Amino acid sequence: MSLTFDAVSAYDEAFAGKVTHVVDHVGRTQPFEVGQWSSAPDWVDRELFIEPCDAATIDIGCGPGRLVAELAARQIPAMGIDVSSEAIRQTRVRGALALRRDVFGVVPGQGRWAYALLADGNLGIGGDPVRLLTRLRDVLNPSGTVIAEVAAAGTGFVHEHRRLRVEGRLSATFEWAVVGLDAIGDVAARAGLRVVGTRSVGGRHAASMVRSSA
Questions:
Q1: Whole-model pTM?
Q2: For residue 106, how many other CB atoms are within 10 A of its CB?
Q3: Cα separation of 55 and 170, whole Å?
Q4: Long-range pairs for 187-191 at CB < 8 Å and ≥24 separation?
Q5: Which of 1, 146, 180, 193 lies 20 to 30 Å from 204, alpha-carbon distance?
Q6: Domain annotation for the chain: domains and CATH numbers
């Protein structure tokens, strides 16, 4: 019997609290930071992702919902989407709106969101950040802003095949990407966006992007 199971089920188990690690294509591992994402937003979350949002915001890959719940508590119209049903359940327990959706599928309110968040490395979803950012152009209104967490300068662009290891069981492989501060301008331009600002706070980094024609 194979120990491999699908990646979405692995995310469900990880968000449910099982010990999980991310394994890259050469076998390097790092903890899957469920505890951080399940806690309340910290001051870095607030400065990078919460305080800049003053209108309707969609959190892509919202996980357990710490950001979208905080936005809702501040009376900002906000919704999270995630492929994990467990992540959506936990977000709703926090009192926030969340739907189980793939960003490349049907997204409610498409074309009307003012902000789209890609926190916690979610710019890497699907392994193709150009495709992801191009998709978000359709999700946002014409003057909307993407706020994406990026890696430190010098990282460049890295495409990876990853797995989740959940208590000894390996998930199926999925594609991921990492984009550094030094590469985000080029990635954004290829998606028809331009970087209008970057911020580095508490060792984390974020870039704000708008349509090139805006």
A1: 0.94
A2: 8
A3: 40
A4: 187/129, 187/130, 187/133, 187/157, 188/133, 190/130, 191/129, 191/130, 191/131, 191/132, 191/133, 191/134, 191/137
A5: 193
A6: 7-211 (3.40.50.150)
